[in-house]
């Protein structure tokens, strides 16, 4: 089906489902050691609101990584195209190696940091989850 499945559990009988699920949430206070070892994430306060926060933060991290990669690919592909076309036309690259390093180390770092540190919003939970192959 391609859907992402999350399971919560706290007992020994929940361990197979926690292990089989894409994301297994075990309860940290009331959960057994078997359930904790089978789970991917342990909820330390046994509060289901924490699961909602974890989903929101997970979606935020995923979206931030996608934004970061999109930005990096856009900048670097444009620099590559400019260097290639400039080399073909001018017989010399219009961008010197030090300029490319400057773009990658200084300018990209600050812009990428801004993209990667965006805090989560409640609206992230309104959209359906991404499929596994996306």
Summarize the structure in words.
It is a single chain. Strands 1-2-3 form a 3-stranded parallel β-sheet. With 134 residues, the chain is mainly alpha-helical. The chain has helices at residues 15-20, 33-38, 48-90, 97-116; strands at 6-9, 23-27, 41-43. Strand 2 (23-27), helix 2 and strand 3 (41-43) form a beta-alpha-beta unit.
Output the radius of gyration: 22 Å
Strand order of the largest sheet: 1-2-3
The secondary-structure element order is EHEHEHH
How far apart are the termini?
Answer: 13 Å
| Low-confidence segments | none
Mean pLDDT: 87
Helix content: 55-70%
Oligomerization: single chain
Defining key terms:
134 residues; mainly alpha; 3 strands
Q: Strands, helices and their partners?
A:
Elements: E1 6-9, H1 15-20, E2 23-27, H2 33-38, E3 41-43, H3 48-90, H4 97-116
Parallel strand pairs: 1-2, 2-3
Q: Could you provide a short overview of the structure?
A:
The chain has 134 residues and is mainly alpha-helical.
